[in-house]
Structures are given as structure tokens and as C-alpha cells.
Design goal:
Length: 182
């Protein structure tokens, strides 16, 4: 009988509802990190879920696999809550984030919102990044989003695939419009 896969120690999955990406919280003796931050209307929930894992520990790092609004909409809220937070993004749209070009970042054309956030460092494909004290490989993964990266932790063979990796491909696009925001 096969057993359900288990996550390595220090890797915590926050499973979210539409329209928010799931979040990964990484904890180790040397630090803490979150991968992707959900949609902006769910920021209060994101903060509560992250705090539920970290307790009183600060969040040291925030990494975005790509910059769709459901993956980085909580960035601004996390940066407000944790002022020393270091934010890492893929290099493809770094200039647009620094200049905050909401059209180039897809938010204006899609009618979605994303509060402005700052960036401190880049997740460069082909390199490794230290997240919460563990080295994760950064791989380019264009397709769902041309600038997306995926993260792989070789010792535990753990892949953070950015969006859904399933039998029909990479990423999910639901038909229809997003629900109206209040
Ligand atoms: Zn996406």
C-alpha cells in the first residue's frame, strides 16, 4: 500500500482557496521564508496563516515564483508586517516592479489588483538560493508565465513548481472572469 507523500521537516504548505496561490513556508534554525503570497484581497488571511506557522519568529525572506497577482498580491502586506523582510523575484520583470508598471505586470489588463511592493534581490535561473538556511536550485520554467522560475531542493527532492504541474500541462487558467472585488 502506497503511503501519502510527506513534506520534509521545515516545509509547510498553506493550501488556499481561489484566487490565491498556495503558499510554502520554510522554517529552519537559520531563518524563515515564504514562497508566494496569495491574492491581495486575502492579505489578512495570509498574514494570519504565516503567523500560525512562525509564531513570534520574524519572516526573513519572501520569494515569488512569478508575478501573477495571485502569487504576489500579499507581498506588500508581508513587507508591512515584517519590515526587515528580504523579497526575491525572478529577473524578467524586475525593472517593471521597481518602476511599478501595472500594465506590463498584467494587473491593469486583467482587471486584477496588486499593491505595490519592493524588491531586494533576484532569483537567477541556474543559481542556488539560500532560503531559511537550505539551498534551493532556481530553474527557468517559461510556459505558464514567460518569466516564471521553479525551485528544487535536491537533498529532499522537493519541487516548488510555481503553478499547477499536472497531466494537462503547467499552470491552470480557469474560464470566466474573476469575482468582483468589494
Ligand atoms: Zn500564474
Amino acid at each position: 500500500m502506497s503511503e501519502a507523500p510527506t513534506l520534509p521537516a521545515g516545509v509547510h504548505l498553506l493550501e488556499r482557496g481561489w484566487l490565491s496561490s498556495n503558499n510554502i513556508v520554510l522554517t529552519g534554525p537559520e531563518g524563515t521564508a515564504v514562497v508566494d503570497s496569495g491574492y491581495c484581497t486575502h492579505t489578512a488571511q495570509t498574514l494570519a496563516l504565516v503567523r500560525g506557522v512562525l509564531g513570534e519568529r520574524p519572516l526573513d525572506q519572501l520569494a515569488n515564483t512569478h508575478l501573477h497577482s495571485d502569487h504576489c498580491g500579499g507581498n506588500a502586506g508581508l513587507q508591512d508586517r515584517y519590515p526587515l523582510l528580504q523579497t526575491l523575484i525572478p529577473p524578467g520583470h524586475a525593472a517593471q516592479v521597481r518602476d511599478w508598471d501595472a500594465a506590463a505586470l498584467s494587473y491593469t489588463p486583467t482587471g486584477q489588483s496588486c499593491p505595490r511592493f519592493s524588491v531586494d534581490a533576484l532569483l537567477l535561473p541556474g543559481q542556488e538560493v539560500n532560503l531559511a538556511g537550505e539551498l534551493w536550485q532556481v530553474h527557468a520554467a517559461a510556459g505558464h508565465d514567460p518569466h516564471s522560475v521553479i525551485l528544487f531542493h535536491a537533498p529532499s527532492r522537493t519541487l516548488i513548481s510555481a503553478d499547477a504541474l499536472w497531466e494537462n500541462g503547467f499552470g491552470v487558467v480557469f474560464p470566466g472572469r474573476c469575482p468582483a472585488r468589494s
